[in-house]
C-alpha cells in the first residue's frame, strides 16, 4: 500500500476532512467532562493535522504520528503548536498521555500492518500501559458492510484537483480494496499530474474489537458515528476508557 503520497495528501487535506471535523467536538467534550485542562493527547494516523490544530486551539498538548511524510509536512504547517513525527501505529512508542486518538480507519490499513488480531492486541496493550487511569482511547474502524452492495465508485473535484475512486469489499475475507486516481494541477501551469494509489483494509467486526479492548482493561462504548449527522455505512466509533 502507498502511504498517502504527496498528491493524495494534498487532496485529502483539501477535500476530505469531514470525519476529523466531526470527531473533534466529541473529543473536546469528553476531555471537558473529565475536567482535564491541557490534556496530553497522542494521535495515531494524525493525517494533515486538522484534529491536532483544533485540539491545540482548545488548550491541549498534541503529539501526532503518521506513516505519510507528506501528511506530516502539511500537519506541521497547520498546527505549529503540536509535535509531529513519522511512524506506524504498529510499532510506535505511545508516550504517557490522557487520551489516544486514531481518526479515519487508521488501524484497518494493511501495509505496514498485516491486519492480524495480535497486532491489535499489542497496540491496545501499549495504549493501556501509557494512558492515565480514566483516560480515553477514541478511534474508528471500517467493519463488514463498509461498501453496501460490495462495490462502489465515486469522484470529487476541487479547484486544482480531482479524484476518482472505486471500492470493492470481500465479505468472506473481510477485506476492502480502494483504487484511487488523483489528478492535481501542476503549479504555474494548465496541466494536471496523474498519480494512483491502491489501499487495502481489514474489516473488523465491532464486537471482536470491543472484546479485545475489554481484555486490555478498557470500558467500551460503540457508536455509529462521531455525531448524529455523521453516519457512514459500516463505520463504527469506539470510545474506550481505561479502567
3D architecture notes:
By secondary structure, the protein is α/β, with parallel strands linked by helices. It contains six helices and twelve strands. The chain has helices at residues 6-15, 18-34, 50-57, 69-78, 117-130, 206-215; strands spanning 40-44, 61-66, 83-86, 97-102, 109-110, 131-142, 151-157, 161-170, 175-185, 192-202, 218-223, 235-242. The strands form two sheets. A seven-stranded mixed β-sheet has the order 3-2-1-4-6-12-11, with helices on both faces. It has a five-stranded antiparallel β-sheet with strand order 5-10-9-8-7, covered by helices on one side. The protein is globular and about 55 Å long. The model has no long low-confidence stretch (mean pLDDT 95).
Q: How many beta-strand elements? A: 12
Q: What is the global morphology?
A: globular
The major pleated sheet works out as: 7 strands, mixed
**Order of helices and strands, N to C?**
HHEHEHEEEHEEEEEHEE
Please give the order of strands in the largest beta sheet.
Answer: 3-2-1-4-6-12-11
Enumerate how many helices there are, as a single number.
Answer: 6
Radius of gyration: 17 Å
Low-confidence stretches: none
CATH superfamily of the largest domain: Vaccinia Virus protein VP39
CATH architecture of the largest domain: 3-Layer(aba) Sandwich
Rounded to the nearest angstrom, the distance between the terminal CA atoms is 36 Å
Strand content: 35-45%
Q: Kindly state the mean pLDDT as a whole number?
A: 95
